[in-house]
Amino acid sequence: EKAHDSVDWGYLDAVMGRMSFPTLWRKWIKECVCTATASVLVNGSPTEEFPLDRGLRQGDPLSPFLFLLAAEGLNMLMKATVESNLFTGYSIGVQ
Q1: If residue 37 lies in a helix (H) or strand (E), which one and from where to where?
Q2: Rounded (10°) angle between helices 9-18 and 62-83
Q3: Residue 41: φ, ψ to 5°
């Protein structure tokens, strides 16, 4: 399973909201992701289209962008946790 297959779209929308993405942009991105369909070539003929329930279409140019959004969201959460002294980390290899 790829990482983008398991990222919650609500999480990505929340990250975009925190990063002040305009509502229209968030709507467009959600439409691109949530209304994706595909078909399969069988003996050279395409099947009926079917909805993609998870993931993105192969080669989708949004993939790297959405990965960066998810990573930046985690980065913001870690910074907030450290600034709140809820996580102080630990040292490795220090005696």
Answers
A1: strand 37-38
A2: 70
A3: -85, 120
DSSP 50: E
Q: If you compute the radius of gyration of the chain from its CA atoms, what whole number of angstroms results?
A: 19
Q: How many other CB atoms are found less than 10 A from the CB of residue 47?
A: 10
Number of residues in the chain: 95
Q: Which tokens hold the place of 61?
A: 């140019």
Domain ranges of the chain: 3-83
Q: State both tokens at 63.
A: 């993939």
Query: Over the stretch 80-92, which tens digit does the pLDDT of each residue have?
Result: 998 998 887 777 8
State the pLDDT at residue 35: 74
